[in-house]
Write a structure and sequence with these properties.
The complex is a heterodimer of chains A (about 290) and B (about 190). With about 290 residues, chain A is an alpha/beta fold. In chain A, about 50% of the residues lie in helices and about 10% in strands. Chain A is built from 13 helices and eight strands. In chain A, α3 crosses α5. The mean pLDDT of chain A is about 95. Helices cover about 55% and strands about 0% of the residues of chain B. The model of chain B has no long low-confidence stretch (mean pLDDT about 90). By secondary structure, chain B is mostly helical. Chain B has two domains: about 100 residues, Fumarate Reductase Iron-sulfur Protein, Chain B, domain 2, CATH 1.10.1060; about 80 residues, no CATH class. Chain B is globular. Classes of the chains: A alpha/beta (about 290), B mainly alpha (about 190).
Chain lengths: ~290, ~190
């Protein structure tokens, strides 16, 4: 059994709980191990980087150092965590002065980091390690009737993701098609949801997310699949405000791609945390 | 943003050291290569909300007009989507430049006042430095108290849904030994 070092990040025990549950369920079903990185700390997200760059890199590097010692590839499902961990690696490799400072910090905690950790997103692992044929073989309930808008957001594909095109990604499209869904053409698939700005600058965020959903609807999607806890939250939680602000109903179930995979594998809605979504299983298209 | 839009720039508004200092930051190196094509502004999902577009921020930075840039909302409205950066034909790391500007604005206390984004960044920074992990709900509540307490009322319907679906962690999460995080950060401070 392949075992990965799991970096859930802060969101996956709160807003992103159904992402954690469905990821564990799907990996378990495919015989992939997920061992949580012991005593991981927050990646720092975009906020830490806005205050102190070298300390932001050091925070990320502490997790990489712990993972490196265990020798397993790191799985980071949250887009912000994935970005920050890979960014920290790039910065340490490209800027020796910054790296030296980070090493000084790590030494104070009895840690060393040699730059060998490999950080992966679960989408990459499922498509490129497990493979679409093996995924297809596990499908017991193909997602017929599901018209999926595949939404990647930004930070999984830009700028450090190497497994897909940074502007016109395809991995999620292929994965969703492999489990029997109809994948709609969705040109906004890698456009931004506003990230944490939707919490701080609500009007701006609500407009961005409204546009994303309006386009998904226009493209006849009846469900939108996400790969990031903040995208999922922004697109889901503000649907009432969108209706109120723009006087147009763009409501759509917003689910994690791992939840859809789990359903296709025949796992129960509860085991993939579907009851935790605001728009629950009921409005999802009926199972074939 | 003094006196609306009628301000003229004079030599005294220029900090001649500013461009070189930003170019010395990681990601700022290629700033001199900018051809002002505007690809960054066109790609940016936020530019319609900005007082200065990303292209103008780069031009003003290179001109040394530090105050215009640091008092602008633009770096703070950057959501880090990196679309400008991957599209830039001159390989300028526009998103990283925005980060460098945010940090400098905080250092110099020049960011736009009563603007919730730097407030969130600092609250987040302090929470992680103290506890090693961040707790989203606590962070949002702290942010509301520091900027607009009435916004908590508006947030209540979403908060109730999060509670009902078990997605609001009310406790402060932390690493086993938050002192270890502090040791890392302190050692860097001293180095």
């Amino acid at each position: 059994m392949t075992a990965y070092a799991y970096y859930p990040g802060c969101s996956l025990s709160g807003l992103g709980k159904p992402y954690d549950e469905s990821l564990r369920a799907v990996f378990g079903h495919l015989g992939l191990g997920l061992e949580e990185i012991p005593d991981w700390n927050c990646c720092g997200a975009t906020s830490y980087m806005s205050v102190s760059e070298d300390k932001a890199v050091a925070l990320a590097a502490r997790n990489l150092a712990i993972a490196e010692k265990r020798g397993a590839e790191v799985v980071a499902p949250c887009a912000a965590c994935f970005l920050v961990l890979t960014k920290a690696q790039h910065m340490m490799a490209e800027y020796p002065a910054l790296a030296a400072k980070v090493h000084t910090g790590l030494r104070a905690a009895g840690l060393t980091y040699e730059g060998r950790a490999v950080v992966r997103h679960p989408l990459d692992i499922l498509v490129n390690d497990v493979g679409l044929d093996a995924i297809r073989a596990k499908v017991t309930r193909p997602l017929a009737g599901y018209r999926v808008a595949p939404y990647y957001g930004c930070q999984v594909v830009r700028p450090y993701g190497t497994f897909d095109d940074p502007l016109r990604p395809q991995t999620l499209d292929r994965l969703m098609a492999a489990v029997g869904a109809h994948v709609v053409d969705y040109p906004l698939k890698a456009h931004c949801c506003g990230g944490s700005l939707t919490g701080t600058m609500e009007e701006i965020g609500v407009r961005l997310n409204f546009l994303l959903l309006k386009e998904a609807k226009a493209r006849t999607a009846n469900v939108l699949a996400t790969v990031c806890p903040l995208c999922q939250y922004n697109l889901e939680a503000y649907q009432g405000k969108m209706r109120h602000t723009f006087n147009e109903d763009v409501s759509l179930p917003i689910v994690y791609f791992t939840q859809l995979l789990g359903l296709a594998f025949g796992l129960s809605p509860a085991s993939v945390g579907l009851q935790r979504n605001f728009v629950t299983a009921e409005p999802l298209p009926a199972m074939a | 943003m003094r006196n609306g839009t009628t301000h003229c720039r004079y030599a005294e508004d220029v900090n001649p050291a500013f461009p070189a200092e930003i170019m010395a930051k990681p990601g700022g190196e290629a700033l001199r290569d900018c051809i002002q094509c505007g690809t960054c502004s066109g790609a940016c999902p936020m530019s319609v909300h900005m007082d200065l577009t990303p292209r103008r921020v780069i031009a003003l930075t290179r001109a040394g007009l530090e105050r215009d840039v640091l008092e602008s909302a633009t770096p703070w409205l950057c959501a880090s989507c990196y679309e400008c950066q991957v599209r830039c034909p001159r390989d300028i790391k526009v998103t990283e430049v925005m980060y460098a500007l945010k940090r400098r604005a905080i250092e110099k206390g020049m960011y736009p006042k009563r603007f919730p984004i730097p407030v969130l960044a600092k609250a987040f920074y302090n929470m992680v430095a103290t506890h090693g992990r961040n707790s989203e709900s606590r962070l949002l509540i702290e942010l509301a108290f520091r900027t607009n307490p009435f916004s908590l009322l508006k947030m209540a319907p979403i908060g109730i849904k999060l509670l009902r679906t078990g997605r609001m962690a009310l406790g402060q999460d932390h690493t086993k030994n938050p002192k270890e995080i502090k040791a890392i950060l302190d050692a860097m401070e001293e180095s």
